[in-house]
Amino acid sequence: MKQFFRLLITALGLVVTSHNSDGQNILPFSAELPNSAQIAQIDRKYGMFIHFGINTFHDMEWTDGSKLPSTYNPAAIDADQWIETAKKAGMKYVILVSKHHDGFCLWDSKFTRYDVANSGNTSNVIKAVAKACKKYDIGLGIYYSLWDRHQNGDINDSLADSSYNAYMISQLNEILDITMKYTHVVEFWFDGGWEKANYRWPLKEIYTTIKLREPLCQVGINWSIGLPENPDYHLVEPKDQKKGYPIRYFPSDFRLGDPYLPANPDPKIFSHEGKSYYMPFESTICLSSKWFYNSTDSSYKTIEELVNLYNVATSQDNILILNSPPNREGKLRDADIKLLIELGKKLNL
Questions:
Q1: In a domain, 26, yes or no
Q2: Domain of 257?
Q3: In 3-state terms, what secondary structure has residue 302?
């Protein structure tokens, strides 16, 4: 019966949202089955995470927003190589880190000088990846950190929320202005929400900004689920999530909690203000040991480990994203490419 309804929803193309008369408050519709956009995300099933930025040049996973923009200096931006590799590996989409916790932006943002325009390589990375995604018929996802250690250093000052929140919305529109010239954004992956209470983030405005321009785009925020006694509890691992637990960041369309795998059985139904919402889980896992390129990172998962990760992560209508970070030459490492292609063949993708 579940499969029948899934096919019916897909055939009808139902993406159900609620909104007010001026269309400015688009929210998910309460349901215990996936809508057509969620089904499309589930069917994409497998993708590549691309962590690249100022951290790439400092052998660090998190920098604090004080590194000079000039230290970001890739020899090239070989986006074609990144996306062609994903295609050959059987992946259906990529998620590009546009701005990590350090606040450094991989496009020329008119709202900050902490970006590629003031760096050692001024290439607009979002544009390059969007064009390559169009060329190779690969979906484009965007990672964006809510937490910004450069722009919003005094994160405990709630009086500063309004100006920083406006900054984020302006940047999301900039990103969409770039990407929509070339392709659709299928997913927005937000991070760092744990640094402030959930109510201090402009979640409805973020969601609405995206959905008004990309209605089928799926929106997720890391560490998505809270506890019944504390909806903003950090962190509730997938193994501890139960049906009906509160959605920590509402509105959103799917669950995140890196680098964990979903529980088995995996609950899909979570709650907000007494209503139920269907939310699949997306696992994000490193191919090697680091998210960003690191000159000391040479430890890779084996093919056998990766096959098992794929099978566990993509069962139960869930999704796997494997992280493969470009190096300081602006290219994926040879070892990543070989392993991803081999894995794709092993999985008959």
A1: no
A2: 31-346
A3: coil
CATH code of the domain covering residue 206? 3.20.20.80
Determine, yes or no, domain membership for 146.
Answer: yes
pLDDT at res. 2: 46
Count of structural domains, the chain: 1
pLDDT (0 to 100) of residue 6:
46
Task: Calculate the CA 241 to chain-centre distance.
Answer: 20
Across the chain, the runs of DSSP E, i.e. the strands, are 17-18, 27-28, 46-50, 93-99, 139-145, 185-191, 218-222, 254-256, 269-272, 275-278, 281-286, 319-323
Mean pLDDT (the chain, rounded)? 93
The span from the CA of 34 to the CA of 41, in Å, is 10
Give the model's pLDDT for residue 154. Answer: 84
**SS3 of residue 197 by DSSP:** coil
Q: Residue 198 phi/psi, 5° resolution? A: -55, -35
| CA–CA distance, 68 with 111 (Å, rounded to integer) | 17
First to last CA, the chain: 28
d(CA 291, CA 88): 21
Instruction: Evaluate whether residue 3 is within a structural domain.
Output: no
Q: Tell me whether residue 24 is in a domain.
A: no
- Count Cβ atoms below 10 Å from residue 295 Cβ, excluding itself: 8
Omega within 30 of 0 (cis) for the link into 251 = yes
Residue 223 zone, left/alpha/beta (φ > 0; ψ -120 to 50; rest): left
Backbone angles phi, psi at 218, to 5 degrees: -95, 135
The verdict on pTM exceeding 0.85 is yes
How does pLDDT run across 157-173, given as a tens digit for each residue? 998 899 999 999 999 99
- Structure tokens, 107: 């496009």
Tokens of 203: 């979640």
